[in-house]
UniProtKB/TrEMBL annotation:
Domain (Activator of Hsp90 ATPase homologue 1/2-like C-terminal) ranges: 24-131
Parts forming coiled coils: none
Superkingdom, natural source: Bacteria
Gene3D superfamilies xrefs: 3.30.530.20
Name this protein carries in UniProt: Activator of Hsp90 ATPase homologue 1/2-like C-terminal domain-containing protein
Family affiliation: Belongs to the AHA1 family.
Amino acid sequence: MEVNYIKNDKGVYQTIDVLINEKPSIIFNYLSTTEGIQQWFPQLYVEERSEHGNLYFHVEDDEDLRMGILQFDEPNTFEFTWDIGTVKFQLSEQQGQTLLTLKEYLPYEFPHITLDFSGWQYQMHSLKNLIEQGEILAQSDFDFEKNQQEIAQKLRL
């Protein structure tokens, strides 16, 4: 897995590239269907699986957060709003594997940038593990605190 960051005057960007031993169409279903996404990110569910449809983040004891689907090009691209930012998944086949690229943008006003970036890194590890080995990565096997510190140092946040 390769992770890169970019900053500008508006906010920060995270790009995660991960190679997965599966076809793009299978991976796309893990990203864009409720049945698929809840296997590795159980707080999310999809309503109307199309451009201008919605994805929801279930929040305990609160109203679920609606995120609009901005781009839906099966099995290549799935982009949606993420609070005040955006998340975009791009898939491309490479020699029998799929390169899954996550591109996330968060403005500086987003309250927990390093936590969110770290969370997506965990989720990408977990998704790869689920698809290739049949189970998600245990949260205890991912050092969130150390990861967040590294992100903060690299971005100077």
